[in-house]
Each structure stands twice: as structure tokens, then as C-alpha cells.
Amino acid sequence: MTRPVDSGVIFIARLALAVLFLWGGVTKLLGYAGFVSYMQSKGVPVVQIAAPIAVAVETLGGLFLVLGFKIRPLGFILAVYTIATAVLGHDFWNITDPVMQHDMLIHFLKNVGIAGGFLLLCTTGAGRISIDGARAPRSGLGR
């Protein structure tokens, strides 16, 4: 079990990660045609399947992060997704312009760091301030 202060920190971390994913998912949904074009320009296979999956993962994943629902498996799924988007969307190794290459490298490494945050959620769980925490059994020892 986590201490109350730990649950508060985990909640803030979940919200910080959720903002990025909710904003990204909603932005992709509102500019769907442009998002599909971007994916095609990056050579993403089966864009007609990948694009709606990306929108759903980001939007629902962000919502589940806020609510603290199924955080351990969600953390793993979002870590894998974030690494995949780093490889497909921030391919710095294919950029010849040094300024753009540096920019893509920074975005790639940020995705790696975000994936690390999701892996931590796999370990910590959602904390008490969550649906998962509300559903967890409590011992009679005040934990």
C-alpha cells in the first residue's frame, strides 16, 4: 500500500501524463485529415487502422490516467505506444538538416522519458486517489 503523500504524487504524475495524451488525442481527432496525411508521410503502415487506434489510445488512455483506471496494464500499453511513436514519428536518424535532426532527437528522447514514467506507473499502480485505489481491498489495520 502507498502512503497518502505517495498517492498524491502519483495522482499529480498521472494528471501530468494525461494532459499530454488528452491534448494529443483531441487535437488528432479535430484535425484528423491532417493527422492521417502526416502518418502517411512518415510511412506508417495501414494508416486507415493505425490512425483511429492512435486517437483512441491517446484519448481513452488520457481519460483512464485521470480516473486512475487499470493503471498497471495501461502504463505498459502507453509505454509501448510512446516508444513506437518515437520510432515512427521522431526518426532523427533520417534527418539531414542538423537543426531539424537535433529537434527530432529531443522529441525522441522526451518520448523515451515519458515511457519511463509509464513504466513506473506499472510498478506503483494508480495510488489511492483513483478508481483502482477505491476498488482495492483494505486491511483493518488502517492501511
Description:
The chain crosses the membrane at residues 7-26, 46-67, 74-93, 113-131. It is a multi-pass membrane protein. Helices cover 76% and strands 0% of the residues. The protein has one domain. The chain has 143 residues and is mostly helical. Helix 1 runs antiparallel to helix 3 (47-67), helix 3 (47-67) crosses helix 4 and helix 4 runs antiparallel to helix 5. The protein contains six helices and no strands. The longest helix has 27 residues, at 4-30.
Key terms:
mainly alpha; 143 residues; DoxX-like_oxidoreductase; DoxX; 6 helices; Putative oxidoreductase; single chain; cell membrane
Gist of the model:
The protein is mainly α.
**How much helical structure, as a percent, in the residues?**
over 70%
Number of strands: 0
**Rg value:** 17 Å
The SSE order reads: HHHHHH
What is the helix tally?
A: 6
Largest sheet: none
Oligomer: single chain
Pfam family, one: DoxX
Subcellular location: Cell membrane
Organism: Paraburkholderia megapolitana
Transmembrane segments: 7-26, 46-67, 74-93, 113-131
